[in-house]
Amino acid sequence: MRAARFHRFGSPEVLQFDTVPWPFPARDEVLIRVAASSVNGTDLRLRAGGLGLIGASQLPFTPGFDVSGEVVDIGPQVTAFRPGDRVYALLGHRGGGAAEDVIVSQRRVAIAPTQVPLVEAAAVPLSGLTALQALRGPVRVGRGTRVLVYGAAGGIGAFAVRLARLFGAHVTGVARPEKLAYVEALGADAARSSAEVSLETTDERWDVILDTPPALRFHEARQALTAHGVLVSTRPFPSTPSELLGALRSTGPRFAAVRTAERGLDLAFLTRLIDSGELTIPLDRLFSLEQIREAHAYLEGPDVRGKVVVTVSGDQESGLRRG
Ligand SMILES: NC(=O)c1ccc[n+]([C@@H]2O[C@H](COP(=O)([O-])OP(=O)(O)OC[C@H]3O[C@@H](n4cnc5c(N)ncnc54)[C@H](OP(=O)(O)O)[C@@H]3O)[C@@H](O)[C@H]2O)c1
Asked: Which domain, by its residues, includes 49?
């Protein structure tokens, strides 16, 4: 089968197409014919050699951490899915989504929403789950919670703005000045330019500051947190002594690192919100698999608003779908 892979770390140009053996599902694994796979900040950082999650011994590497598609085969222990099911899945750090087929454990898979095209559903698993778990993990965001979303026009940020509003929070979104209209259109109560917001000097206070890029340090954000406020970071571990102390505290302003978990129940919850029309997928642009270099370069560039998706076997029509 065809897979987009990189054999060395670097710019989007390191992505190339290889023919690789068809995968075969064992045990509790499901074989998915990929309709589409989204491009996430994680793809960019791994491809560039950052994050330290994959070493040279794991090259060549197929990016793509979430997919939508159709189940075409199942391992002997699979009970939850059958060939023909329309599904979406969070793949985990092995990636593999930018290929014609992918193998994934059934616990990472959920039936896809029925009310949106399958290729659009690929935008949901990693960003949607990370946003949901950030808002419903370290602290339960609900009616009246004051939430600041940093990087509000990004993949996780756009989902976080929409979900936090849905949970009844008062949401401030922070992004570049040229993206503020988009952040307002997502539903944020207030949109602020990243150049304008200084968390160290502001008089405003938030119960949750969700740092999606991640770009903030706990000691910078602490001043802007309420007495029991939490800085929730997509950095998977505390990275300074003050963050470590902040993570160990049970009272006062705290630090929490979010690590996305493949909870099928959470994905099913997002599916219900999408199918009921309460949650709209913040989709920006579709690219074909052949355009994966352009898709990576686009997500690295200044224009992106929301999610970028690469279509593999699904609807091949690429272009802007901003919503
Ligand atoms: N811990 C976990 O389990 C986990 C899970 C998923 C993702 N992540 C991490 O989460 C991060 C974000 O992922 P994503 O998919 O949302 O990426 P994304 O779609 O590229 O969005 C990142 C957003 O952050 C903004 N941004 C970047 N640097 C900024 C800065 N210094 N100040 C303010 N805003 C800034 C970007 O805005 P501009 O483009 O306008 O600059 C962009 O809107 C990635 O680093 C990824 O590795 C962690």
From this structure: 2-124+281-320
